[in-house]
Amino acid sequence: QTVLQGIILLPLRVICITFILLLAWLSASIATFCQPGRGVLPLKGWRRRMIQTTLSALTRTAYFVMGFQVQVKGKVASRPEAPIFVAAPHSSFFDAIICALTGMPSIVSRAENLSTPVFGTILSSLQPVAVSRQDPDSRKNTVAEITRRASSQGQWPQVI
């Protein structure tokens, strides 16, 4: 009986997750379409709200479809309380849960990830701090950008 459930559930889960991923891509594409100051200026207004609500809900739904139920204990720190979040060990796809639960903050990511089909568009909508592994000054530039965003008086979202 368990094998039969797996044979039925696996394709259904794959189809649902694919559909959710395409919805997330569409939402990210709409929110960043003709974005003024792409990557240099923070998303504002409806664009930011759309990313926060839609991508957060879709991410939670995708994890639910995969069989994960996440429960938050405590209160998520607000932007003035904690302009920077730290997630460790930062080594798996579970990092997306943290993003969904904290309102889709900006993240620090490899610059190469931005050119990945579908995922790159979704990632770009989070306005990441892109780290280039080929640039010898990348570490210094990344720290400077995180500091600039953290001290922006709420213009940029929290950074994780």
Automatic annotation (TrEMBL):
Q: One biological process GO term for this chain? A: lipid metabolic process
Pfam families linked: Acyltransferase (PF01553)
Segments traversing the membrane: 12-34
SUPFAM superfamilies, alphabetized: Glycerol-3-phosphate (1)-acyltransferase
Q: Which UniProt keywords apply?
A: Acyltransferase, Lipid metabolism, Membrane, Transferase, Transmembrane, Transmembrane helix
Q: Which GO terms describe its molecular function?
A: 1-acylglycerophosphocholine O-acyltransferase activity; lysophosphatidic acid acyltransferase activity
Location in the cell reads: Membrane
Give me the stretches of Basic and acidic residues compositional bias.
134-148
Q: Which GO terms describe its cellular component?
A: endoplasmic reticulum; membrane
Describe the location of the Phospholipid/glycerol acyltransferase domain by residue ranges: 70-156
Compositional bias per record (Polar residues), positions renumbered to this chain = 149-160
Protein family (similarity comment): Belongs to the 1-acyl-sn-glycerol-3-phosphate acyltransferase family.
In Swiss-Prot or TrEMBL terms, this protein is called PCAT2 acyltransferase
Q: Which organism is it from?
A: Bombycilla garrulus
The major lineage groups are: Eukaryota, Metazoa, Chordata, Craniata, Vertebrata
